[in-house]
Amino acid sequence: MRETEPDGPQIGFTTPRALGKAVERNRIKRRVREAVRLELDRLNPQWSIVINPRRKALHASMEELRAEVERLFLRCGGS
Asked: Please, are residues 14 and 27 in contact by the beta-carbon 8 Å criterion?
């Protein structure tokens, strides 16, 4: 049991080896992490989410990534 609640939402990322070599997996994580950072204020602080991106995230535009993250956060009851 936690003594204190976290200040904001907790977001984790998984990138299995099936997505490619380490360089590609790290690039996917960096791109998705940035999209999440830009939309994080839409998410309620009580959430803990693990994001498992697809290979498409490597070549998607930042606008597409942000739109997907926004859609996810709205499904979680974000503003």
From this structure: no
Directed axis angle between helix 22-39 and helix 62-75, to 10°?
60
Question: Would you say residue 57 lies in a domain?
Answer: yes
Q: Are 43 and 10 in contact (CB under 8 A)?
A: no
Residues belonging to the chain: 79
- pLDDT value at residue 13: 95
Residue 73 covered by a domain: no
Q: How confident is the model at residue 71 (pLDDT cuts 50, 70, 90)?
A: very high
How many domains does the chain fold into? 1
Domain ranges, residue 36: 16-66
Distance between CA atoms of residues 29 and 12, nearest Å:
10
pLDDT band at 1 (very low <50, low <70, confident <90, very high): low
